[in-house]
User: Which sequence fits this backbone?
């Protein structure tokens, strides 16, 4: 599995970029090609999409964007191209807030997301994404950042913990346990 790729951005297209690594150009489909700097060496997080009839790499500027993409792929009926379209037309925090707040109207404003798709996103993801704006989770996240953990790691771990009925200290303890493994 390809986790990331580092190389020189040689081309920017409408929905993809070309990254040159050791004289080989890799095409990566991305949500926002303009976020990448032409002729600069960049680290890009990747995901390999394999289908019966096609195989391609998807690229992400941040690990949080990659995690959001993988989360969207869990939704019935959303494939890689739709997930990229969603990420290209919203910001991750607003997307997560809309999901956590059952905001179907926000989701329907995203190009490529109709009523049926928005409803499915809420059905499949509601409750599975933690809002790190919650004061308790924010405190836990800040404590873990101060201990040297990366925000992306923290977000992934906190999203996997059942935080209901847990104190701040208990959440921190569970997160530390998960981060150390």
Assistant:
């Amino acid at each position: 599995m390809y986790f990331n790729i580092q190389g020189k951005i040689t081309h920017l297209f409408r929905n993809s970029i070309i990254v040159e690594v050791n004289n080989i150009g890799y095409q990566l489909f991305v949500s926002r090609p303009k976020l990448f700097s032409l002729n600069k060496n960049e680290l890009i997080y990747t995901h390999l999409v394999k289908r019966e009839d096609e195989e391609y790499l998807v690229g992400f500027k941040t690990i949080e964007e990659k995690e959001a993409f993988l989360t969207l792929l869990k939704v019935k009926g959303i494939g890689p191209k739709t997930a990229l379209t969603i990420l290209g037309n919203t910001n991750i925090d607003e997307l997560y807030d809309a999901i956590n707040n059952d905001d179907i109207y926000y989701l329907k404003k995203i190009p490529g997301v109709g009523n049926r798709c928005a409803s499915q996103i809420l059905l499949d993801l509601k409750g599975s994404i933690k809002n790190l704006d919650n004061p308790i989770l924010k405190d836990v996240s800040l404590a873990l950042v101060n201990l040297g953990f990366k925000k992306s790691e923290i977000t992934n771990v906190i999203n996997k913990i059942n935080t209901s009925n847990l104190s701040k200290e208990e959440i921190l303890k569970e997160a530390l346990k998960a981060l150390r493994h």
The radius of gyration is 18 Å.
